[in-house]
Amino acid sequence: MSDLALPAARAPRRPDRGLVAALALLPLIFLVPLLIGDDFVFHVFITICLYGALATAWNIVGGFAGQLSLGHAIFYGIGAYTAGLLVPLGVSPWLGMLGGAAISAMVGVAIGLPCFRLRGPFFALATIAFLQVIRLLALHFTGLTGGAVGLMVPLQTGWEWMIFFERWPSLLIAFGLLLLTLGVTAWLRHARFGYYLVATREREPAAAAAGVDTLRVRLYAVALSAALTSMVGTFHGMYLTFIEPEAMFSLAFSVQIAMFALIGGIGTVMGPLLGTLLVVPLTELARGWLGASALGLHGFVYGTVLVLIVLFVPDGLVGLFRRAPKGSADAAEPAAPATVPATAREDIRREIGEPILVAEHLHKHFGGLAVTQDVSLSLRQGEVLGIIGPNGAGKTTLFNQLSGFLAPESGIVRIRVEGEGFIRPATPHAFARAGVGRTFQIVQPFAAMTVLENIMIGAFHHHPGRAAAREKALETAHRMGLWAQRDVEARSLTIGGLKRLEIARVMAMEPRILLLDEVMAGLNQTDVQRAIRLVESIRDSGVSIIAIEHVMQAIMALSDRVVVLNSGRVIAEGRPQEVVRDPVVVEAYLGEDFVHAHSA
Amino acid sequence: METFVQLVLNGLMLGGLFAIISVGLTLIFGIIRLVNFAHGELLMVGMYLTWLGTSQLGLHPYVLAPPLVLVLFVIGVLIQRFILQPLLDARDAHVQIFATVGLSTALINLALLVFGADLYATPSSGVRDSLTFGPFRILIGQLVMFVCGIVVVGALHLFMERTYLGRAIRATAQHRAAAQLMGVDVKRIYIITFGIGAACVGLAAALVAPIYPASPTVGTYFVLTAFVVVVLGGMGSLHGAFIGALLIGLVDSLSAFYIAPDLKEVVIFGLFILILLFRPTGLFGLGRGSE
Predict the structure, then answer these.
(1) Both A113 and A196 in a single domain?
(2) Beta bridge partners of residue A417, listed in sequence order
(3) Where is the ABC transporter domain (chain A) (predicted)?
(4) Residue A346 belongs to some domain of the structure
């Protein structure tokens, strides 16, 4: 590794071979049927475009947001019905498409709002339940939907009505919808929004601590996914010219959409289309050969392929195209990682200013256990405040209240913001926006993202543009000794690396107030020394710090002031040298007997 | 009043049917922590096998129960061993769901390929005759299911509480790693648990087939209700599943009469959404519903 200089990393990464291949193939989806001109080929390729677009839209929620929806037919059906009901009134389906998309986005948000706290299978079950309710209601209210009999779309042809005698205009629209969903996904993959979405999927608390409004990000995702799905639904309704609840709000159809994405590879731009390209022609051709006797064949193939993919290529077809992870973790570290810039101005005496974070009379119970009892403390501008206390004293719980992760039952936390005076944030991301950054005692990496992307999540806080955030992240990675591992997935870091990543992410946020939760625990002596120097350099750059720490050496060296917690109460406060000699503190740590034995 | 009592009776009997289908599901749910989306399809396979046994061999459906229990136990073991076990340590917890969803889709469509979309009614063999108690009537088959539901729940409960294997299963459910450290062969426990869960469906299939005709999607119909029952009862709770099944049976029967027959499922799924949102641990859950 000789390319230690930062600029080397700025060179654009070579695009994936898979992506290039996929982009080269994309126009073929449109051109092949035009060249062959056969009706069956047209049908197959229109089906590919439709399912490809649906799976790509699903992937925004199912892949990027990591919420396994099996109810996406809701939006597909809403799209078809909105346009289908408006056409007899003389409204063009193009307007119906937009109307349906808007309704679907709202329905998606209405379903997502209560359901996004459910995890994994429970979310999937809830989406199925919503789909069933909507399907049954659609069947019940026959006046509106035509019930089980269905609705025929009036056969008016031409671009205005989205219904054609020839095949190619339908193909053009379907292909356009496919390009639209792919384009949206490609944008999302590289925008701050997409990074936030993946970070939320990987580790919600850490994303919130980095200033991401996790619920809002997910709701945007579901609105986007629902709107796109609905648009495809509108077109498909016009293409079929027949709409019925059983087909439009079908569970099997929802599952199928998800399957295409899973087979191709979720959370990637091209995966869902790739999955569609594999299985749709396979089954359509087989159906062409076997005719009507092949009832159920396509589903059998989809299901079997999915099981095989899950067993043998768990990342989906896209996984086949991916090269081995670049840049292994064993690469040599740069010469001077995690050290203080030599320019640290030691001669300048730090000034400790006015309070910047104030907690007053915090109370918190877990069941019958009082974990925080009347705790008040304040952090002043430029100060390092150490918090010590035996295990179970309530230190981390206090931190969670100081960063919005837990709401105190009574008492308030105030943060002073430049030009605004004191404010009272309520949620983790609001605290982050007020300039509070925190680390977690148990490290919370975004496992599937690279080290650099992890740091970028923090950097986005002040640098909304991807390039600027990347710049900031590269600089932070270099400073934190993570340069060599910058393109490695976070899951493959060692515990020391993860701890540095945890700090790197929060430093990239450029917080004014930093809450450090046992960042030194488990480090060896050399690393502790390094970490102490690092915290000093952070402090000297003007950040006010509260540190929970068990490593006394670090507390003594760094703290301007120490607060001692025991059983949820503040039992002592003062300069570090005084506090460690306080008999109350010694007793809390070592027990009454020890104090008596030594005073005797 | 008579109508109401009859509706309650119908509801309880229907609850017995839901119970016997849900017991296996809650077992797999609670112990392997797996949402088995293919559970209904196991029932469907069992119902087709019952139809084959009765119509082709001329056997009474109840006679087929023991062999079906065995066959489905084996199928369950094979699924866990060769499809789900390799995914046990997958880095994405969703992967197992994908596998069961894929399996479910494959099985539904396999049935469609083999049997077509027609309904296959197993001969009723006297099971659909009704017993009368004064003004009230109950189908014999439903009563048998109700009693079998109680017996299965009771037997499984005793098995879990009293035997070494049952204790090992419960230990594994509570903490997989800790059980492993105590010398429990977790993979074997999972295989056995899935086998037992599937075997319960084997019994259910033999009892249900004479009352409901088999079709490729019959499993989907029953399993969605079974999920409601399992979540209502609290995942992994056997008696929870039984009581949940009776409650859902009652809701089904009463709402079909007092609201509208085609809206009873709206009531059930609406209830399901409310439970998921406000009490995901169910009535008797262990407090880990959202895990």
Answers:
(1) yes
(2) A421
(3) 357-592
(4) no
